[in-house]
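To whoever picks this up:

The parser on our side crashed when reading a file containing two proteins. I've narrowed it down to the boundary between the first structure block and the second sequence. Both blocks are reproduced below exactly, byte for byte. First block:
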Amino acid sequence: MRPYTVDVRSDTVTQPTSDMRQAMAEAEVGDDVFGEDPTIKELQDRSARLFDKEAALFVPSGTMANLIAIMVHCHHRGAEAIVGDLSHTFLYEQGGAAQIGGVQLATIKNEVDGTFSLSELRNKIRYDDCHEPITCLVSVENTHNMCGGKVLPLEWLNELVKVVKDPAATHSPIALHMDGARIFNAAAALKIPVARITRDFDSVCYCLSKGLSAPVGSVLMGSKAFITQAHRLRKALGGGMRQAGILAAAGLVGLETVVPRLSGDHQRTKRVAEAVHNLKSPNFTVDLPNVQTNILLIDILNSKLSSNEFCSRLKEIKPEELEQGVTSDEAGKVGIVVQMSSRNWKYARAVFYHQNTDKDIDMLIKKLTYVIKEFDSSLTA
């Protein structure tokens, strides 16, 4: 019998819903490179309205969306963009800004809440020395993935805008971009429209293929002039697609049917966090008060244990756990496999999404509880 598997490695493992599959099958399409795909146009128009931006562009991935934004805003080679040191753009987009765009990324240390020091930002802005690159862009991530799905505080965003858009500044205008891959999670947590969060940003992108359950794509938004340039760069980067309305149709369903359910993902995340917290383990902990959205970091406190070891054990099924009832069925025959993310981190990461059922959460907690207690026993023996 197959084990009962709960996959919380990422919300990218979501599957298209039945409504999405039907919409994709029935989508009205055309050649989008010629600007003739009506479903692409509908997705772009709806996205622009949602974010109160002038225009939008459908692209294959969030990585491409961020790269295009950097290249449009940093319109000459040798320019500089400032990002957080734990940002996805800096860590996990293969240095595309430099590799492809000729743009240098300067970093500021991210705080645990996903923000960074605005006084340090002021000192990092460069504009009038011929020895230095010119700062053209500041980019932030919301929610912040590697900080555990943190929502950037509106107060901090307001202060960031004042620093970057200071009318008294003597330097050239600096653009603001938001990597909003999970921006709808931020809006759900704050209970405000996404347009309020991104109100003062020159560009923003969001991902359709994470918690929104669509199979492919992100949407990039900004002014008409910005999107005109973004459209040119999308083509140069190989992102020009033909009958892409098949993909956009799934995105439209995600906006209609999945976005309203994101708060449920947050509740399930909190439930797992509370279960770990209540174990009072000396080796594992969670920052329970600051679990805000659908990402949970389980911190590993013991230097003798790595996150890779922990996550590997969660995927194992040992005979003794079946004997002790760590199963998904009353007969005690079907063991539980939990898949979480780990690299060289001191934590394991779980990301929840709307296709995680209540039973999934029950099984995950059962397995987590057993494995954490097992490690607690072995590490203190």
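<<boundary where parser fails>>
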Amino acid sequence: MAGIERTPESAVIRRLKRFRDKYLMSLWNDTRNVQHPGNVDENTVTGCSLNSLPVDVQFRIMALLTPQDLCRLGSTNYYWRSVVRDPLLWKYFLLRDMPLWSSVDHTSMPHLEALEAPICKDEEDPSQDFMADYLRGSPACRRQWQPPRPAYKAVASFLQSLVVPTEPRFAMFGPGLEQLDVSLLEKLMFSPDVLPVAGIPQRQIGGIGSGISFTFNDQHRFNILTLYSTNRTERERARIEHQSVQSKLFVQDDPNYNITPQVQEVCRAVDGFIYAANAEAGRDGERHKEEAQIRAMLDEALGSSSRPILILSCMAREEPDGARTRTPCVNMARWLNLEHLANPWMVQDTVAESLSGLLDGIAWLLKGCGLRL
């Protein structure tokens, strides 16, 4: 990850080997053969063939296991419980796997400051519980270990479904709408999973329009008002020439941004926000400007800080041959300083051409607005 030095495998193996030597010596002392420790066979002391494997082989095995399997291994005996809880091991796993995560949110963002600091000798230091950071942050762990919903909540959800909820409205903006050579909004308009629905347009907001209503899972309606920085001709020219355009949504008051009166009216009327970020290579230098524009939209003077914001970390197409050039979602969250927002937030990897990841983001956004999915 950018800005954080990777933990080398050799450092993890050396640490595990020191613990193993200390552990074996303790066991040898307990066998009352202190005078002749060489009489004790290591397989007898450790108790099984897996324990007796060389440390580097044990590390290779653990590196291939899923987090769930690692936790199960740690429940077998004291030795493996101590090994699996080693903070340097999980720091290595975090730095290895975080760039591959497809999403991260305000409840699962790892403590990056702790990752930048050296490992403390005190393994109980709560700021360095990298195992908890991993299990809380990994999308696969979040899905697999999500607690089941109690029966009474299922009944309450059914009763709530009988009440027609208000249609949540979201303001959608950002460079991912304008800079990609595949239109995210056009793909969204023709998606079989999220279809636009016909209906009587709601009143316009500051001349911007009433937005487009969609259905999610054929039952939940929501409305998106799309805010473009300028007109279509200027956006197309800027995209082709790889240039930035002066946004008409914001008035720059260096280093901050203010939003125009029409957009202020939109921000007061919506229930949440969708920010389409450009995650393709070469866009990282503009993150400070994007952060300032997001903060302008989320100004508490224009609405409650409980309104969620979904960050779509967009690419035009899937990367060929398993390449990985997109900005990792954890990096996106860090560079946009989302941790300092008062609003709930989520970063979701999205591919405009296939809409991969979009439904997961929409589901999170609707739940943040109180809908029972």
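After patching the parser it read the second block fine. Confidence is low (pLDDT under 50) at residues 37-46, 160-164. The longest helix spans residues 9-30.
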